[in-house]
Amino acid sequence: MAKAAKKPSALLPKPKDKGYTKGKLIAHLAADASSKGVGEISKKQAAALVDSLVGALFSYATVGAALPGLGKLVLRQIPAKPARTIMSFGKEIKVSAKSKSQKLVFRFSKEAKEKFKK
Question: What distance in Å separates the CA atoms of residue 66 and residue 17, rounded to the nearest whole number?
Fold first, then answer.
């Protein structure tokens, strides 16, 4: 008797841990505050702190929100770029930038890059 063929497995296995989530960050901040001598803070207060920090970063992203020792969050304008037409046999035309062509970019600082450099 022949064995049944196995189904091909997925290329990448599903991760068991979803990484450092917002909930884990809040729990870490609440636990770490007392060890730093700040005092006890609840998870609710830590959640408010995280939400406030994220809100401040997004509101200042247009001028460049900097996190010392980590990096900078910047809203970058996308310029006009050349494109090729199909109808004109590859003739190059210029595609204008859309009015809201922006990209949110995070640039790590030199300190952060050096810390994780191998």
Answer: 30
DSSP code string of 58-104: HHTTTT-EEETTTEEEEEEEPPPEEEE-TTTTS-EEEEPPPTT-EEE
- Crossing angle of helices 43-59 and 22-35, rounded to 10°: 110
- pLDDT for 118 beyond 90: no
What was the pLDDT predicted at 88? 64
Candidates 79, 69, 75; CA nearest to 110 is 69
Strands 71-77 and 65-67: antiparallel
Give the largest Cα separation in the chain, rounded. 71
Strand order in the sheet with 65-67: 65-67, 71-77, 102-108
Stronger pLDDT, 50 or 7, i.e. the higher one: 50
- Average pLDDT for the chain: 80
Amino acid in the structure at residue 33: A
Cβ contact 61:75 at 8 Å: yes
